[in-house]
Design goal:
The complex is a heterodimer of chains A (about 120) and B (about 110).
Chain A (H helix, E strand, L loop, with lengths): L2 E4 L3 E3 L5 E8 L7 E7 L5 E8 L4 E4 L8 E5 L4 E6 L8 E8 L3 E4 L3 E5 L2
Parallel strand pairs in A: 2-11
Antiparallel strand pairs in A: 1-3, 3-8, 4-5, 4-9, 5-6, 7-8, 9-10, 9-11
Chain B lengths: L3 E2 L3 E4 L4 E8 L11 E5 L6 E5 L3 E2 L7 E6 L2 E7 L7 E9 L2 E4 L3 E5 L1
Parallel strand pairs in B: 2-11
Antiparallel strand pairs in B: 1-3, 3-8, 4-5, 4-9, 5-6, 7-8, 9-10, 9-11
Classes of the chains: A mainly beta (about 120), B mainly beta (about 110).
Chain lengths: ~120, ~110
């Protein structure tokens, strides 16, 4: 069974950095795409980008290019979403997805709150 | 950049049939957009119902089906149940990047 387990909720201040994680199991981590999706409070879904861990091939939505970094560590079957300088507008729920490359399964989500 | 359009809200009676549509501002939706459909209930993560236009996940109830019609991707729910009340999102592919529609809130009433 495919499972994606994400790291816990985070509370940060503007200007801080953050790295959240998504650990995959039940599939070959290097043979599928892991994606990230943002959902701001009370809003819809926004596709941020995807990574193919087997080749470190990474693609970003134009809206998120340069704003976040997607990476993966194949030794521990874990993908990451990283910010160097958080803003209040980065608050939301972030979901990781498993797919080929479009989302077939979803993690439980990580709530990120950025507040002074 | 293209926009993906969905009805903001729909209402269906229990046992009734409802059709969700997913369009593109850049033209007709085709199988080459690989339409996906997702269901999200309050407080839960989304889950994938339909992939590549018509294919169902193992957990997708038989009452849901996907198709193309009139230049749009379509999700049809036949025989709605109260538990189908949720938000429904579509996703289209545009040459290697992807875009969600704004979502449709389904009320079963």
């Amino acid at each position: 069974e495919v499972q994606l387990v994400q790291s816990g909720a985070e509370v940060k201040k503007p200007g801080e950095s953050l790295k959240i994680s998504c650990k995959g199991s039940g599939f070959s981590f290097t043979s599928y795409w892991i994606g990230w999706v943002r959902q701001m409070p009370g809003r819809g879904l926004e596709w941020m980008g995807i990574i193919y861990p087997g080749a470190s091939d990474t693609r970003y939505s134009p809206s998120f290019q340069g704003q976040v970094t997607i990476s993966a560590d194949t030794s521990i079957d874990t993908a990451y979403l990283q910010w160097t300088t958080l803003m209040a507008s980065d608050s939301g729920i972030y979901y990781c997805t498993f797919g080929s490359p479009r989302p077939l399964a979803w993690g439980q989500g990580t709530l990120v709150t950025v507040s002074p | 950049q293209a926009a993906v359009t969905q009805e903001p809200s729909l209402t269906v009676s229990p046992g009734g049939t409802v059709t969700f549509t997913c369009g593109s501002s850049s033209g007709g939706v085709t199988t080459g957009h690989f339409p996906y459909w997702f269901q999200q209930k309050p407080g839960q993560a989304p889950r994938t119902l339909i992939w590549d236009t018509t294919n169902k996940q193992s957990w997708t109830p038989a009452r849901f089906s996907g198709s193309l019609l009139g230049g749009k991707a379509v999700l049809t729910l036949s025989g709605a149940l109260p538990e189908d009340e949720a938000d429904y999102f579509c996703l289209l592919s545009f040459g290697g990047t992807y875009m969600f529609g704004g979502g449709t809130k389904l009320t079963v009433l």
